[in-house]
Amino acid sequence: MTQRILVVGAGFAGMWSALSAARALDLAGKADGSVEILLVAPEPALHVRPRFYEPPVEAMKAPLSAVFAAAGVRYQQGRVGAIRTGSQEVDVVDSHGASTSLAYDRLVLAAGSRLFRPSVPGLREHGLSVDQFEEAVQLDQHLRKLANLPSTRARNTVVVVGGGFTGIETAAEMPARIRKIMGGQTEARVVIIERESAIGPELGAGPRPVIEKALRDQGVTWKLGTSVEKMDADGLLTSTGERIEAMTVIWTGGMRATDLTEQIPGRRDAIGRLHVDRNLAVTGVPKVFATGDAALAATDDEGNFALMSCQHAMALGRSAGHNVAADLLGLEKIPYSQPKYVTCLDLGPWGAVYTEGWTREVKMEGAKAKALKHQINTEWIYPPSAERAEILVAADPRRVVVA
């Protein structure tokens, strides 16, 4: 009887989970069909989410059908609507609304995360984002339509809510992007609203002077210790009572793990991530692994935990895939470990800033760091080619990834 490893999600963690499981089966001499790797996702494509702040958004997809076929991974279109760990089943709803139940012997939850949208009046109706592919496309279409409108302060103003990783990268891209859309005739007013007392609060003090200089040189301003009270089609009201006229408000504030984590009877942290052990097995839930943005995973023995980033998701996926196969077959597991941590933050046409370590010591900035960021974004984070030998090498969980 064929056993099944079921992977939920085709993002960075889901894709690498499936490919690493295939590698483990190959090494164990089990690539004979006795164990099926089945991946369920809305489409067989990797959405290159870290690049959604830049155009052309339509190009930010990498097809996976050929890669899965070469690795021996079966793909099934659909979204998982329910998980029943007691009976080891999930319900999958396809694009036509038909539901199917799938049994599993081992489960890997790699369904990622979504932007957190609080109950700010007007946010859902008027807020834009770069979180999901379709939302980034919507933003791009919105920006292009602005060129057909009369030039006003509201039309020419972009507000980015949230001054973290995504907010900074998005804001830094906007002045040149708006200028290009407007035929070089308009200078955009770009404003970041951050509720904390410093820009890039989670980035720490190390790279902040570089970030502030890059933003300032490109005309981006920011308002700190400020939040959004309400929004409408023409702007927003801040917590300080200021009205900002803006037809474009991009929300980047906060992430939450997939809602599917709520169907796993395990402990979760404040943003919904499941507690996992060093092998990425969900604590207290047999035969279930969580990875990527769905997992609260220690990267080392120093108290650091993986962030919701492709840098960590890729390594988490490789580890989860190997370990779920090893758990099924009784093989040796390879504990997840990713002590090396770097950041490479895109700062628009100005350049980028590259840091190393959890203290984020600046090692490179400007054009040189931008070249590294370009290489990361266009090469390092993309799937391997559809060559089985290359896939199996790339899926090694001991592979060092610093992107």
From TrEMBL:
Family according to the record: Belongs to the NADH dehydrogenase family.
Report what the protein is called: FAD-dependent oxidoreductase
SUPFAM superfamilies for this protein: FAD/NAD(P)-binding domain
Q: Which residues cross the membrane?
A: none
Q: Where is the FAD/NAD(P)-binding domain?
A: 4-315
Keywords (A to Z) from UniProt: FAD, Flavoprotein, NAD, Oxidoreductase, Signal
Q: Signal peptide location in the record?
A: 1-21
Organism from which the protein derives: Variovorax robiniae
Q: Does the keyword Signal apply?
A: yes
Q: Does the keyword Transcription regulation apply?
A: no
